[in-house]
Specification:
Helix content: 55-70%
Number of helices: 5
Number of domains: 2
CATH architecture of the largest domain: Orthogonal Bundle
Radius of gyration: 20 Å
CATH class of the largest domain: Mainly Alpha
Order of helices and strands: EHHEEHHH
Strand order of the largest sheet: 1-3-2
Distance between the termini: 61 Å
Largest sheet: 3 strands, antiparallel
Length: 89
């Protein structure tokens, strides 16, 4: 027998708007900008609980800081790629 208790909790944009005390349009805007992860099924969106938890956990700031840290290595990585390409010629 299949139980819905096994499924992850999801919310509608309207429910998220109510929880965050935002307008429905603001939530749709955040979805379109990728700031809230949502899956579209036909014409409706469903937002996983983990997406909302992510907003409050501050992990997005941690990811931003990690991204900035990673970007400082890009010139070195590009230099190594260029060196490798020269050896392939």
């Amino acid at each position: 027998m299949f139980s819905t208790n096994m499924l992850p909790k999801t919310y509608t944009p309207e429910e998220v708007a109510y929880m965050l005390r935002l307008s429905k349009n603001t939530v749709y805007g955040l979805i379109n900008k990728g700031e809230i992860v949502a899956k579209k099924f036909g014409k409706v969106y469903r937002i996983p609980k983990s997406s909302i938890s992510f907003i409050f956990s501050g992990l997005d700031k941690d990811l931003l800081l990690a991204d900035k840290s990673d970007k400082k290595y890009l010139p070195k990585i590009q230099k190594e790629i260029d060196r490798a390409r020269k050896t392939l010629k």
